[in-house]
Amino acid sequence: MVAPIYIIAIALGLAFTMGLFGKQLKNIAGVLFIAGLGSLTFISGQWLWNFMVNSAATEIIYTAGFKPPFAIVLQMGFEEAVLTTMINVAGLLGALYLFPLLDKKGNNAMMVYLIFIMSTNVAVMTSDIFNLFVFTEVESIALAGLILLTGQSKAFQAGMKYLIVSGISSGLLLLGIIFAYQFSGSLTIIDMINANLWAVKASSIAAFLLIVAFIIEMKPFPANGWGIDVYTAAHPGIGAMVSAAGASASLYVFYKVMPLVNGNDWYYFIALIGAITFVGSNLVATRQENPNRLLGYSSIGQVGFLMMILGLQDVLGERTLIISFSILISHYAAKAGLFWISGILNAENIKDWSALRKNPILLFLFGAFLFALIGFPPFPSFFGKWELIMTLSQTGNYSWIVVILVASFIEGIYLFRWLGYAIKLDHAQLPAFKTPWYQLIPIMSMGLILFGMSAYLTHVFNFGPAINYIPLLFVLAIFAIDFLPAYIKNTVSIAGIAYYTYYLWPSLENDLLRQIFIGIFLGGAILTLVAGYAKKGTRAGFYPMALMMFAGLVGLIEAKSMLQFFFNWELMTAGSYFLIIRGKRSMPHAYSYILFSIAGAYAILMGFGLAYGSQLNGNLDALSQISLLPALAYSLLAVGFMTKTASLGLHIWLPGAHGEAESDVSPMVSAILLKAGVFGLILLFLSIGVDNPNATTLLYVLGWVGALTTLIGNMGAVFQEDAKRLLAYSSIGQLGYILFAFTFMTHMGWLAGFTYTINHFMFKAILFLVIGGIVVKLGTHNMYEMGGMIKKMPFSFIAVLISIIVIGGIPPLSGFAGKWLFYNAVIEKGWYFQGAIIFFAGIVAFLYLFKLIYSVFLGQLKDNHRNVKEISAWILIPSYILIIGIMIFSAFPQYILQPISDMIAPHFQSETITWTGSLATTSLGYWDATTIMIVVGTAFMLLLGWLIWLSAKAQKVEQFNIVFAAERPFRPETTHVSYNIYAGYQKALGWIVAPGITNFWNTMSTNLLEFAGWTRRIYSGSIQNYTLHVILFIVVFYLISIGGL
Amino acid sequence: MEYIILITGLALILMGLYGIMYIKNIFRIVIAFALFDTGINIVMVTIGYLRNGMAPILDKMPTEGTTPAIVDPVPQALVLTSIVIGLGVSALMLTYVLKLYEDKKSLDINSFKDLKW
Amino acid sequence: MFIIIAIILGVISLVGGYIALTNPKLSVGIIATGIVSLVASILFLLLAAPDVAMTEAAIGSGLTTVIFFYVLNKIRQGNA
Amino acid sequence: MLKKILILFLLAGVGLIFFDLFQSYQSASELTTTAKYYADNGAKEVGAANLVSAIVVTYRGLDTLGEVSILFVTAAIISFVLKHKPEEEDKNRVIKPASEILNTATVFLTPVMIMVGIYIFINGHLTPGGGFQGGAVIASAVLLIFLANPKFHLNHSIIAFVESISGVAFVVVGALGLIMAGGFLDNRILGLGEFGTLFSAGALPIIYIFIGLKVGAELSNIVGILAQEQNIKN
Amino acid sequence: MLMSSTMRRIIARVSGRIGIPWYQPWIDLTKLYSLRTQISHGTMFYLGPVFRLMGGVGMFLFMPMIFGSDLWSNYSFSGDLVLILYFQFFGMLGMALGAGEGGHPYSAIGISRGLSQFTTIEVPMTLAVISLAIQYDTLSIAKIVEAQQGGIMHWTLFTNPFATVAAMLSLLGAFGHSPFNLVKAPNEIPIGPPTEYHGTFLGVLRTNSAILHVAEAALFMNLFFGGASNWFELIIKTFLIYFWSVFVGTVFPRFRIEQSVVWFLKWPTIIGIIAIIIYL
């Protein structure tokens, strides 16, 4: 074992030696520099290995051979080993990244860099407060030098601010040290802690000064303008160091000195400061467009988050360290990687990051880093946040949970905007950039570290067996073959899904609910993927993401515990986000989708937290016995799931997201993905159970929400000119029905709900597939630019017609089954007004259905569409398979509904529907699907036959063989009345869909951004203002904590 | 006496802070910073002072069981370090001032607001 | 006795500090800072800290002042 | 105006903190545990008469190492920021010749000052003063040269050499302590010698010499760069 | 058919003319059926009328016409009130599709208006039906009729007047006579949806229109006026129901589409809500 003290000896020895090499021997200096960093990494890594594998005891390093407190003592324990390894790895990779720049600036720059890394190491290891002061001072001076590497004027300004503020804070630290020394008689941290400085007012001022100095180092909001400028002005490579190595070290240092003020109040203040920083920095970041500055805000926010976690350590107990580590490591890898990418792009505005598209590897890593920051699975921060929230909830600290989730959401606001820009923003000319190997390798290494740590932490948290990784591995495999042509990947994907369905099925033997949903999810997956054969090229990135979504969906079904459920929920969200954003104009819509999704996910998380807190049981069945704030918990869960089902108020993301998605993505996200929300709601309602006193109001409200959603959705669809948006609004409406039906909590209602769910899956898949295909064929979304397609695309027409009949609930097709059950349920439940609204909405549906089929298929064929052909057979095949499904379901619903009925019966007091063959009887009425089918079918055929016989000789009219207003039309556009055909209706009832809700969210977001803009004015750029902030912070903190306020 | 010196030190720190926060000329801010540093050093040494203590330089090996009547050497050692660090920081700040001036031809602190928001 | 010296020195250093911050001429300010440093080193002697006093005299009032002057000189030349 | 009030308010706030600090201060009547240990055992363990030196070099040697690296880093930063480019130097720069007295004084004083500096740090373990003070004096000598002859070109390679060698030697001696004695920077790699004599306190004087040389070189370097740096471009 | 001619007579009477003889519609119809249509706009042109007729026939088929008669309860054993309500849509859709295929701009306008109005017409109707379902605790028409037997005071008309009023008002719209006949708009748009069809098709449509009217009237009779226990009663009652709309239509001027939409959502709806509230 190499003694840790050699970290100092080697680094300083090399740094001093490098002065010997002039320009002639520069290369040797460079080699020594890298070798030195490498040996630091080796030493700390070796210790880490030692601790992990051999579980060695903590090593104490006595300098000068004397015992503490009389000499300085360093310590190398497990935590120090972790931290120093992190710092040194970042240092080494960063050096590689910056090497050309450092080399250009000469040996001096390298020396400074080396000493920066060395001092960071010592700050982590030392146990002596004055030594800590000296080495943090070395660190900040070295950093003040590194900032100047770019040589720009901005860098000098930033460095000046940094120097002044860190000078003030180190002055205060010195004062604190000397007074603390006076009271404790020692300079070691542990002795000072044992002296209980905080207990007496006299000595507590010393403790205050110490702590406040370290807090200032961590850049608490709002006294952090100086810190942010450093991130902005320094070379991104240096930003990476500050964010990854520096922030990690200062957090650990803070963790070491925190017990100086041991006392619940103090910790509470610290947590509060952390929370304010977390929220404030993220808030301000929402207005930021400079990537480095944005990353700076985000870094500071993350540090605030960690500070908050440390402040809550009394609550979190022994889990503090592992939680903070998992969040820290995500931050570390992600921020380093992001800063480095930023250095490669060298863009002033995050909009220019769209150039990243040119390099798929970087783009992938960029996405991974962002998701890691926000806390998506499988990254460490996901598990960290999960543990954190579960623990907090268990101890009743709800307000902290709210703070964390709000801040994380705000973080999502800007990070996803950024991601959207990178993936999708239209750019006339993508700026060129070079990716040299020495810059790519560090970034990729950080990516590897991130994924490696994900795997490792899953193991540490003991989540490994809880999560099924087989689908994930499959996703990875698909990712590995992403370069192959689409049809190969398509085949592999379909085969994989089919096999997995086959593999999974036996385990769901007695669980009809899950069988239904697996049918929807995976059956739907296969069918929609079949349509993918119509696409050409490699479709880079499509298959991994689609499969990721399906993996998440499958995982939802397999989930036994809340963690599994949430893990897969997030996985699905991430996958679907990438699918949605693939559309040409999807960027803003995918953005709002993901924002609603993460907000919903956080609501679910909090709900799970409450459930976990009440039962101390991570299984999903804990949901049925929530004793902590049950009403709130159920509401949160419901709201969370409703973001996916796009219920009223939470629906505004859907039209755009579904409407603009690619033609085969729309059915995936509409017919399949929305059902995930339904599945969640079903699980939730099953857990709530009938007559749960905590959820009565909730269910009632949800019932109304469902009814109004239906109305708004259908009404919205009526006024759409865009075919896919029309369908998207229609989805909102249909999901409204489903939500409404399930809130009944009666047997009949649920049966109706299931019928709707199955129907919606089938007809919406058909519609989106076919309409999507047509949209692609015709090259326009606007229905008024289509028309007359019936002659060109008869098969499509029939598919659409049948779907429409189902949506309309017109007998004899299966839509009517849903309606019939539904009205029985309404009357039985007694929710008449809601029922009436739904009924009204149901008729409104005719308006848009007519518009859809009329504008697209009927009316006048346009000149430029004379040569179009039927859409691809690959789209029609799945559609017709689904039509067969609809027909079977229509004619023999009892084979599906009866088992469902039996399945759900135990959950309710009574079974209110009885089956005799195909005849269903309720207390209110009866319905015999098969007979109706036969009667209607026969009558229909007879009439049709008669008419055909009557008009056998009819001649075809030419398109314009019509006369009106004494003129013969000659252009189809003038004759195809489709645009805004419901103008009168809009005048009368348009107010219902007046974009009140969209306005509400717009106002919310505008206000948030305004507020952020207003807040960030504190960062006026003036050095003195920043100083003022710092002093103000200190004074206020003092007055609150000690001054007796 | 030590009380008076302590007050002097604290007052110098306050003056330094006032200068840093109020004065517009960055050069003078560096001067204020030097005052701030000096004040802190004075305070630190004062803390180690022991009435009737001698300077911590022994003229003979102390005999077992008796403690030489000296002032506390530890703060002095710390201040030594602190003074040198102060020099380093001042020199660095002056370099910055020089560069800033070279850039903007001004010492007014309000001309260095390129970075904000 | 020491108290009186301390008071006098304290007052000198505060006045020096005031001058350093307010005198319109930067050079006077620098010198005033040097004086404050010098006074501080005398205070250190009073506090039985000869090592510190030496250091303060050599570095605080000596080298620092010189460095200040050098930089001020550069700036002035730049102005000229 | 508002800002001024705010500043006054803040100063009052800081003043309040200081007032509380002042109130909490009580003139010490006895040494703290640490100080008492040094007073009792410092001479015995380290062998230095000057306890401050003993603390600075041995007990808290690591701090000193850090401090030296601060100066080192500062010098490095200043040199790469204000990189001297002789070819661009303004040839027309008007330099006031230094006075005759100064020139003469320089010639006499410089060697003397360097000698004094060296004396100070060699006797650091016995008398007040040590590496820093000695180094500062040496730097002042260099300064004097600059004052006398503004065009004097400091030989950077010599300074760099001294700086590097003494720095490396400092580290090496420290590492020797780790190998041969109790720990990094332990001065007991050499015999402690007789208390109060020049050759006592083990390796302490040696370390102090290196510190002195290094500090001297670094300070000279800083002064040199600042003095030589070309004029601000107009 | 009979009703149709009567209606026109009344209109004429009110407007001070003599009007057509009662048998005129039959003549028209026969003529239309005898004409072979010579043109076709495509598949949907066929399917549209078929759908439309299907709606009417379906409604008819699944509705019990005469109380207590096995023969004339049709197929009502396999469906109830909800089924009937939805069969109305069938026809509507068919009409819309068929006309759309014609490619004539005015048909689209007409249909859009028709559908718009239709949506709101159904609101009071639904409220009334729900009210009935609460009242009788069933959705089966037969059972509703059964419950109304035993005297005129048992009719829904008297047991649940609000529901009846709401439904009757909506009936006005459903029949598409003035003032809610902008859809067919005889004057301003002389060639609304029906005009695109000639010959047999127009015949089909006319037939259908008649069937629909009868079916709807029968439905109302069943729901609100005690049903019919024999043919005579059936004819009288449906006739009277039908004439209600005709009378109203001749008195009021035509509404614009947005006016009618709003109108339906105002008074009839409120009455419908009251009808439900009293049974809550």
Give a description of the structure.
The complex is a heteropentamer of chains A (1045), B (117), C (80), D (234) and E (280). Chain A has 1045 residues and is an all-alpha fold. Among the domains of chain A are: 263-463; 485-862 and 886-942, no CATH class. Chain A is built from 41 helices and 6 strands. In chain A, a hairpin with a 2-residue loop joins β3 (913-916) and β4. The longest helix of chain A has 32 residues, at 153-184. With 234 residues, chain D is an all-alpha fold. Chain D has one domain. Helices cover 68% and strands 0% of the residues of chain D. The two termini of chain D are 35 Å apart. Chain E has helices at residues 2-14, 24-34, 43-61, 81-102, 105-136, 141-148, 156-159, 161-175, 199-224, 231-251, 257-277, and one strand spanning 39-40. Helices cover 69% and strands 1% of the residues of chain E. Chain E has one domain. The N and C termini of chain E lie far apart (41 Å). Chain E has 11 helices and 1 strand, in the order ααβααααααααα. At the A-E interface, α32, α33, α34, β5 and α37 of A face β1, α3, α4, α5 and α9 of E.
Oligomer description: heteropentamer
| End-to-end CA span of chain D | 35 Å
Instruction: Tell how many strands the DSSP assignment of chain D holds.
Output: 0
Q: What structural class results from the helix and strand content of chain E? A: mainly alpha
- Radius of gyration of CA atoms of chain D, rounded to a whole number: 23 Å
Fill in the keyword field for this structure.
heteropentamer, D: 234 residues, mainly alpha, 0% strand, globular, E: 280 residues, 11 helices, 69% helix, disordered N terminus
Brief summary of the model shown:
Chain A is mainly alpha-helical. Chain A is built from 41 helices and 6 strands.
Walk me through the topology.
The complex is a heteropentamer of chains A (1045), B (117), C (80), D (234) and E (280).
Chain A (H helix, E strand, L loop, with lengths): L4 H14 L7 H28 L5 E4 L10 E4 L1 H28 L1 H19 L3 H18 L6 H32 L4 H6 L6 H17 L7 H9 L2 H22 L6 H22 L5 H21 L1 H4 L2 H27 L14 H15 L5 H15 L3 H27 L12 H24 L9 H11 L5 H19 L7 H20 L10 H17 L3 H19 L6 H29 L14 H16 L7 H8 L4 H24 L7 H23 L4 H21 L3 H32 L10 H4 L1 H15 L5 H16 L2 H26 L15 H19 L2 H11 L8 E4 L2 E4 L3 E3 H22 L4 E2 L15 H4 L7 H7 L6 H20 L7 H19 L4
Antiparallel strand pairs in A: 1-2, 3-4, 4-5
Helix pairs in contact in A: 1-2, 1-4, 2-3, 2-4, 3-4, 3-10, 3-14, 3-18, 4-5, 4-10, 5-6, 6-8, 6-9, 6-41, 8-10, 9-10, 9-12, 10-12, 10-14, 11-12, 11-17, 11-40, 12-14, 14-15, 14-16, 14-18, 15-17, 15-18, 16-24, 17-24, 19-22, 20-21, 21-22, 21-27, 21-30, 21-35, 22-23, 22-27, 23-24, 23-27, ...
Chain B lengths: L1 H21 L3 H23 L24 H32 L13
Chain E lengths: L1 H13 L9 H11 L4 E2 L2 H19 L19 H22 L2 H32 L4 H8 L7 H4 L1 H15 L23 H26 L6 H21 L5 H21 L3
Helix pairs in contact in E: 1-10, 2-9, 3-4, 3-9, 4-5, 5-8, 5-11, 8-9, 8-10, 8-11, 9-10
